[in-house]
Each structure stands twice: as C-alpha cells, then as structure tokens.
User: What shape does this take?
Amino acid sequence: MTGIARLALFGHPLGHSRSAQLFETWSAKSGPPLVYQPVEVRAEQLDAALERLRAGQWHGANVTIPHKTLLAARVDELTPEASRAGAVNVIVRGEDGTLLGANTDGEGFWEGCCATLGEPVPAGLALILGAGGAARGVAEALARRGREVRVVTRAPQRAVRDFAGLVVGCLDWEAPELESVARAAALVVQATPLGMAPVEHLAPPLPIEWLERALVVDLVYRPWETLFLRRARARGLRALNGWPMLVHQARLAAGLWFGIEAVRGFLEAAAEVESRDPLRRSA
Assistant: This one.
C-alpha cells in the first residue's frame, strides 16, 4: 500500500469506538500515513458500503457491532480463522477490488490477555456470555488451543449451529446446570453489550458469587470498568476489560493491511492513547 492509506470502520453505533484514535496516534508517531474514517452503517446500508470499498474509496476496513457475522457471507474470501468463527472484523481490499474477510478478534483477545497477565490464559473450562460476532472470534481462538468452551445465550439452539465445532455446549440463562458450569469455569468472557455506554448500569444476569476462581474478561472498554468488572473485583477475582483485546486485534489488522514489519511502534502508540484517556483515570 503506497501513499496515504484510507481505512474505514463499519458499524452502528460507533460512539464507543477508540479505533480511530489508535490508528491516528500510531500514524503520527511511527506508522504509515493514513486516514481512518468511522462510517455509521446500518444493516440495510451494508451492501452499499461494501461496494464503495470494492470501488476503492477505502483500502481496507474494520468491522464492529452489529455486522461481524453478516460480513462473513458478503466478502469474496475468508481467512481460516474467520471461516471457523463465522465472523469478520477486518476486510482487506485486493488490487482488483476483491474483499478478503479476516478475524483478528480471537488472536487479539489471546495476545492481549497474555500480555496483560504476563502469563498464558488459564487452562480449563471457558464460559462465554453472549453469542455475537466478538464471542465467535474468542471462541475460535480458545477452541484452536484446545480449551473447552461453553456459551450462555438467550438463543442456545441457534448458538449450537453458529458455534458448531467451537464449543462443547450452549446454555440459556435459566439452565439449571449454569451454576455448576460457572463455578467450574477458569475463564469467563463477558461478550454482550451490557455495561457499554449508554447502558452502564446493566450487567449480565450471572450471579457473581457463582464465580469461584475464574479470570473475568469483559470485552467492553468504554466505560473502563463495567458494573460486571466491579462486582468481579469486589469478589477478589482477577478481571480485565476489553482494551488489551482492542489494541492487539488492531495491531494484527494493521499487519494485514501494511505488512507485519510495518506495525512496529503500534503498542507504544496504544499506551499513549491509554495514558491520556480520562475514562481510565477516573476508574
């Protein structure tokens, strides 16, 4: 990619996203020249946005809620990770306008957790709360590493199909066995929008006293500390928000667009963005 790279972020709503700040700070400090444009795209506007991408308005795009699973069926090719997850959070445009869908969410989750903890993600049962696109990416990365994964969702029968080959079971929130599964979990991943602005006062309906030893990761990073994380920390559990995942999935996306050698300095730029975040300082 030569000249000024034009990148987009497709999703709706986008008020929570920090991706533009990450990429623009990286570009200003040590990265390639780029323009990163958040583009509010509703479901009925998705095909039109992809045609603009094919035509060259942008060189690539990130994808966020609620389009990650929809995109898996709309791009021309999928990476192995995206194919297994059935979800796309990165689009790479080829010179001929073809679109490659990739998923860096799962690997970003793994790398972000390991870097923050200073050790691997705990082995054992992983319980994912929610069944959207981000949950699928995380499930794929955990399953690829041999973790036993279960999903809690309002629609477990649909999740059985969507997570086929990734999980050993799907439960609804009223399942009698949910308590014993939660007590056995070594990792709990909160992958619903609950707790994200503007519903900061909400948390998933999983009693925190059921969690006995789990590492708790909430994929929300705005606010910096969700109600779910506060409850986990008050119980004495190790708990992380979604910022490490955001940073590492973005770094991996940059590697797909610019080449892995070009992403030196990305983590340093992310640390600068984090250090000046007023939400973090007030948490």
Summary: The chain is about 40% helix and 15% strand.
